Amino acid sequence: MSATDPTTPAPPGRVEVLVRRTDPRLAGPVYAQPSDAGADLVAASDVTLGPGERAVVGTGLAIALPEGYAAFVHPRSGLAARYGVTLVNAPGTVDAGYRGEIKVVLINTDRSETITLRRGDRIAQLVVQRVEHAVFREVAELPDSVRGVGGFGSTGGFGSGSTAGVAPTDGSDGSGAEVGAGAGAGAGAAGATGREAAGVRPGA
Ligand SMILES: O=c1ccn([C@H]2C[C@H](O)[C@@H](COP(=O)(O)OP(=O)(O)OP(=O)(O)O)O2)c(=O)[nH]1
């Protein structure tokens, strides 16, 4: 079934996403396999990326998602593993209200090889998901949790003989040095700057 066939209703349990081809000769979005999470997005134009270069590439597609959904532009693992090509902003977020052409922000992370992708090449994949819209409620204290403020490697890093679950002996939270202004326990809940940065209005 064509992904853009307007006469075929969505089967039960499947969300209907309206698709407009801004470039009618291009394919997509197409699920390569029935159980794939992502539908392939293709390049609307040729693009050549030297080592470290990036480009915003059109896909020839615009969509209308139902309210309560978003679509996420993810890299393709084959392009990433074979050529080092991924997305600068992975995953890119396509809002339900966005009606413009979906674009892909590609980057060539390879240090020496230039890659040329051709119009019609599959450059990314689109994952449609239900998303919650939160009500952000400001509080003075957050409820306790097992993790607490530990993060950024607090469970022991990446080695198989990790120290996961071993409490630090220095009385710290185990997360090592503070990482940026937003990593502290008070950020987000107590600091005025954090509130402003989070867009939380006083009294909201
Ligand atoms: O990889 C992406 C990411 C975003 N978009 C489109 C859809 C999305 O709804 C819109 C805005 O994206 P985002 O909110 O990430 O951009 P922003 O930098 O916050 O810009 P804006 O001020 O327009 O929201 O751009 C894409 O086509 N591809």
UniProtKB/TrEMBL annotation:
GO terms for molecular function: dUTP diphosphatase activity; magnesium ion binding. It catalyses: dUTP + H2O = dUMP + diphosphate + H(+). Residues 30-156 form the dUTPase-like domain. Residues 163-172, 192-204 have a biased composition (Low complexity). GO terms for biological process: dUMP biosynthetic process; dUTP catabolic process. Pfam families: dUTPase. Residues 159-204 are annotated as: Disordered. Residues 173-191 have a biased composition (Gly residues). Transmembrane segments: none annotated. Keywords: Hydrolase, Magnesium, Metal-binding, Nucleotide metabolism. Substrate binds at residues 76-78, 89, 93-95. Its EC number is 3.6.1.23. Signal peptide: none annotated. Its cofactor is Mg(2+). Pathway: Pyrimidine metabolism; dUMP biosynthesis; dUMP from dCTP (dUTP route): step 2/2. Belongs to the dUTPase family. This enzyme is involved in nucleotide metabolism: it produces dUMP, the immediate precursor of thymidine nucleotides and it decreases the intracellular concentration of dUTP so that uracil cannot be incorporated into DNA. PANTHER family: DEOXYURIDINE 5'-TRIPHOSPHATE NUCLEOTIDOHYDROLASE (PTHR11241:SF0). This is Deoxyuridine 5'-triphosphate nucleotidohydrolase. It comes from Frankia canadensis. The lineage of its organism: Bacteria, Bacillati, Actinomycetota, Actinomycetes, Frankiales.
